[in-house]
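Exercise 7. Given the encoded structure of a 226-residue chain, write a plausible sequence.
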């Protein structure tokens, strides 16, 4: 059985799925109220949380428009932006002693990966049509189609593994790193490790967001749109 560090969720249950679900919901609630606070009293000259959120949104759209174009970057921002923010908050909550990152659970990162996987295929089929979308899987050379098509299918399914395990592995490793540091220096606040984990939390949220846009671009942009 996997050893788990004691968290506040253990006051209610020691079940693995319950603990993961507890922090998934807690993170969503925290994100909702923080986001609500940032947008509750909008000002022409942004200050405080509003300024932070507007800077984040501008940064995401600035990067995304280079991948998929400004119009589509804004269209798919509700998905990519929400996932980026949620992954960030999920990563950050695990830094707090007594809390656990939902993204340190592979079952949760798998759900996020599946959401992206099914959504970009849905959008690709909706925009291009079923047959035209899957015709791209066969490649430009017809006689290579029997070889290219299964390779493309495997490649797309491997994205689920790549997305979920990359996030899970990095955050799980970060949590173990923090635990070891706290055990080694329990009498002092390890500021440097906390800064490293904060940076890694931002980086993993950024990578997940970028890959979401990349997969969407590959699905909805035709050859003429590139």
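Solution.
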């Amino acid at each position: 059985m996997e050893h788990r560090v004691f968290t506040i969720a253990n006051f209610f249950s020691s079940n693995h799925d319950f603990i993961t679900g507890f922090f998934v919901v807690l993170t969503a609630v925290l994100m909702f109220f923080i986001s609500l606070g940032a947008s509750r009293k909008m000002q022409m000259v942004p200050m405080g949380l509003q300024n932070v959120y507007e800077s984040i949104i501008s940064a995401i759209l600035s990067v995304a428009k280079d991948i998929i174009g400004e119009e589509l970057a804004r269209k798919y921002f509700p998905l990519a932006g929400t996932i980026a923010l949620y992954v960030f908050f999920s990563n950050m909550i695990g830094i707090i002693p007594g809390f656990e990152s939902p993204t340190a659970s592979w079952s949760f990162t798998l759900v996020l990966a599946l959401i992206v996987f099914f959504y970009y295929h849905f959008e690709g089929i909706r925009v291009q049509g079923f047959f035209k979308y899957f015709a791209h899987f066969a490649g430009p050379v017809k006689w290579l189609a029997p070889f290219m098509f299964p390779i493309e299918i495997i490649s797309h399914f491997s994205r689920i593994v790549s997305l979920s395990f990359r996030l899970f592995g990095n955050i799980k490793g970060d949590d173990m790193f923090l635990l070891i540091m706290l055990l080694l220096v329990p009498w002092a606040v390890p500021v440097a490790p906390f800064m490293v984990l904060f940076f890694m939390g931002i980086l993993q949220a950024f990578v997940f967001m970028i890959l979401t846009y990349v997969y969407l671009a590959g699905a909805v942009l035709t050859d003429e749109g590139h």
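Remark. The mean pLDDT is 86. Students should compare their own answers with the one above.
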